[in-house]
Amino acid sequence: MISDFAFLLSGAGLIGLALFRLATSADLLMRVLGLNVLAIGIAMVLLVAARGAAGTDAVPQAFILTGIVVLVGVTAALLALAERVAEARDE
Amino acid sequence: MMVFDAVLAAACLVAAAMALFARDRIAAVAAFLVMGLLIALAWLRLGAPDVALAEAAIGAGLTGALLLRSAHRIPAAPTKPLPSAQWLGAGVLSVAVGGAIVWTSMSIGAAPAYPPLVAVAVPESGVENPVTAVLLNFRAWDTLLEIAVLFAALAVVAVVKPVRPRIAPLGPLMLPFARVVLPLTILLAGHLLWQGGHAPGGAFQAGAVLAGGAIALGLSGAVRPIRWGRAGLAWLSILGLAAFAVAALAAELLTGALLGYPAGAAKAWIIAIESALTLSIAATLLLLFFGPAERH
User: Fold this and answer.
1) In angstroms, what CA-CA distances link B35 with A55, B38, B60, B122, B167?
2) A3 pLDDT above the threshold of 90
3) Which one in B157, B186, B225, B261 has a CA-CA gap of 20 to 30 Å to B233?
4) pTM, full prediction
């Protein structure tokens, strides 16, 4: 129970830190990194919520797996766009 | 183990703070990689080994490689000093959101509704691993759309056409390294794929491991993934979505339910779809890293 609470605090902390960084940074790379940390924090909170007497619920686990794969696609697309923005600024 | 968990949870936070607030970008990405591995360990402790595997391979490994690739291509934005009201507002807001999440999670008392339903249906699903059963049988529709999202991301990258990473051939120790890594990667991917049916593992983890090995070899100059057929890789990345869609329609014809596999044959259907997905995810991730199209 204490362990779950520690991980819940950690997940909420990750969300808070990432939101703070997203609100105060203009650096595109750091924003993409912040988005990744935010998603990981949300996944952590979901996983803690999935804990039960019969082990960890499989449905939220499947959600998170889907989320991780979607996130890597989003990250790749955002980074490609950010690189293009940087090039356009140079010209 | 309670102390270990508390230290691990704190370490995740410290690594995240280092990643988010490091001045040097390479240091930030390195801290992000460390955080990903710590998070994978934390999720293992939370009883979710499937998700931990995916986080270690995709969340830490591949995302870290993508960020590192882009770190020197995206110049740092000119730092304008922010008004202190914005710092204060951001701080108050993020603490409030974090606190609200903790408070909400603590005040939910209801037991989760899904575990009994999953436990009843798993024997019919064709696989013993409940996470694989949810991903490829009960909620296969979500996974089909997820593959479509991955393909859409690849299409965006193909349109934007990022610059290819510069490949510097390494020294003579590269070939022995490749001789070990390449067979090991393929073996590990096959093992994860097959194991997904009854133990932690599955198509996503297997595809990510395959892509990781291919990216390492491609960056070292041992093989040229771009030369040996970018068109082939592009076709391979469509294969997963196409095979999944065909399977969905075939199941619709056979049983009258979209993605309702014929009784008794579910395992064969799931393994066939997962095999196509593994190759396709590996090809998609490889192309997302190296860029699917040449810029003229």
Assistant:
1) 25, 5, 8, 33, 27
2) no
3) B261
4) 0.91
pLDDT band of B267, cuts 50, 70, 90: confident
What type of residue sits at position B185?
T
**Distance of alpha carbon B70 from alpha carbon B87, whole angstroms:** 27
> Within this chain, do residues B189 and B248 fall inside the same structural domain, yes or no?
yes
Name which residue leads in pLDDT, A43 or B197: A43
Residues 11 through 40 of chain A touching chain B, CB cutoff 8 Å? 11-21, 23-24, 26-30, 32-34, 36-37, 40
- Any residues with CB less than 8 A from the CB of B202 and at least 6 apart, and which? A65, B50, B129, B131, B132, B135, B192, B193, B196, B274
Distance, in angstroms, between B250 CA and closest chain A CA?
24
Categorize the per-residue pLDDT at B30 as very low, low, confident or very high, splitting at 50, 70 and 90.
very high
> Are the beta carbons of B102 and A12 separated by less than 8 Å?
yes
Over residues B98-140, the pLDDT tens digits come to: 999 999 988 886 667 788 888 888 888 888 888 888 888 888 8
Q: Is residue B218 domain-resident?
A: yes
